[in-house]
Design a protein that fits this description.
Length: 436
């Protein structure tokens, strides 16, 4: 049965990517009502508003009981408990949601599962959470691979590092899709002979001038870049929603002084926000208790138009300043940098919309993984010596925690834990090379 079930589905970024690859989920399930409404509006299938962390999961199991053994279960449990964008804590109740995802995989028994989360998952709780999650998937009979990837490597105009875990119960050995793009964001770079991922200005090109009221605005010019063409596709009305901005008057002086790539710390101290001042000189080192992490903030920051964007979060429309204009990014601009097409209609107030946007898996990257999953599943019966390992014991195929030459002590500890899941542990670099 080639059904796809989306859980922790949010507004539908992951599901939209799978839909574009020909694997439209039957439905979504999420705890956020606005996100469910956005999902239904754009995917045109139901999204059930259920509490995925409730003690009583009878309503959810009732919904799923006729959909056992689908092709795939996909989802990204809420990540705020692991995110480095705020104060992380191993005791955050949202951290339990990764095991609720596991419980759904256990119940549904899909051929494949795809799990997405923030990179903070790798070191939160001393790495014990991600170790236990992988161990449990293995105990169910899944062959599992874990990697930290940067979605910019697949052409996203944004440096966005995420942890992906994929497993199958067919006994198939497999690799992740190979990157197709170079990228440069200032902090995270990968320079190669591949074409470059779109820059911020290439991604925003073609959008009309932002409105000062919450009304749709029409395109005023021709298609400017290939990415602009991709984002306009399907927008029959020629109108762009959620493309408005009302700058906060007290911030105008700050915005005027910020140069591309600069942050609050580059401004005169008298212009610092009080919340920034409290944490401006905070330093965080490995070994700091997770509940005290978070590091020195950057406050507002002006993006560089000639680079990929920094990671879009639920604070993007408050903190990210347009590369050329003295105003914050609009919700639509944030959605474009997340690869949501201009015809995608978000439901909810401004705060809800940017939260839905920032929490989403970018559809562009999701489509790459969906097509790769389809290819791998098709090879299961092809006789390919490389992939056809049907009948073999499930195993931890491999993992990649970083592209850097070294690891922090915290990440090295996670590495040691994961190595114990191999019958015959091999160096991480040997596994990585085998998939390149």
């Amino acid at each position: 049965m080639d059904e796809v079930i989306s859980v922790f589905s949010g507004a539908g970024g992951l599901s939209l990517g799978f839909t574009n690859a020909g694997l439209k989920p039957l439905f979504g399930v999420d705890s956020n009502l606005d996100a469910c409404k956005s999902y239904e509006k754009n995917l045109e299938v139901p999204s059930y508003n259920l509490d995925l962390n409730a003690d009583d999961q009878a309503p959810l199991l009732k919904l799923l009981e006729n959909h056992r053994k689908p092709l795939a279960v996909i989802g990204g449990p809420p990540c705020q408990g692991f995110s480095t964008a705020g104060n992380r804590t191993g005791r955050d109740p949202r951290n339990n949601l990764i095991f609720n995802y596991f419980a759904l995989v256990e119940y549904l028994q899909p051929r494949w599962f795809l799990f997405e989360n923030v990179e903070g998952l790798l070191t939160s709780g001393g790495g014990k959470g991600v170790f236990e999650l992988v161990r449990r998937f293995l105990s169910l009979g899944y062959s599992v691979r874990l990697e930290k990837v940067n979605f910019a490597a697949f052409g996203l105009p944004q440096s966005r590092k995420r942890v992906i875990i994929i497993g199958n119960r067919l006994g198939l050995d497999f690799c992740f899709p190979r990157g197709t793009h170079s990228f440069e964001s200032g902090k995270h770079n990968f320079i190669s002979l591949f074409p470059s991922a779109p820059t911020v200005m290439e991604a925003l090109a073609g959008l009309p001038m932002a409105a000062v009221k919450k009304v749709p605005v029409a395109y005023t010019g021709p298609i400017m870049t290939p990415y602009d063409a991709c984002m306009r596709q399907g927008n029959q009305s020629g109108l762009v929603t959620r493309h408005y901005n009302s700058p906060n008057a007290p911030d105008q002086e700050r915005l005027r002084l910020l140069r591309p790539g600069q942050t609050m710390k580059d401004l005169p101290e008298e212009l610092w926000h009080p919340s920034f001042r409290k944490r401006a000189f905070r330093r965080v080192q490995d070994g700091t208790p997770t509940e005290k992490r978070g590091g020195a903030p950057s406050g507002i920051k002006r993006l560089r138009g000639d680079l990929c964007s920094l990671t879009i979060t639920s604070s993007a429309t408050r903190e990210f300043i347009h590369p050329c204009l003295d105003r914050p990014m609009t919700p639509r601009e944030a959605a474009r940098l997340q690869s949501f097409p201009d015809c995608f209609e978000f439901i909810g107030n401004a705060s809800s919309v940017i939260t839905q946007t920032g929490n989403a898996v970018p559809p562009l990257a999701a489509e790459v993984f969906a097509r790769h999953l389809l290819e791998m599943d098709g090879l299961a019966g092809s006789g390919s010596r490389m992939h056809n390992l049907k009948g073999t014991e499930p195993k931890f195929i491999g993992y990649r925690l970083t592209d850097a030459n070294g690891m922090s002590p915290a990440l090295a500890h996670t590495d040691r834990l994961l190595r114990t899941l191999f019958p015959d542990p091999v160096p991480q670099w040997a596994d990585t090379i085998a998939c390149r």
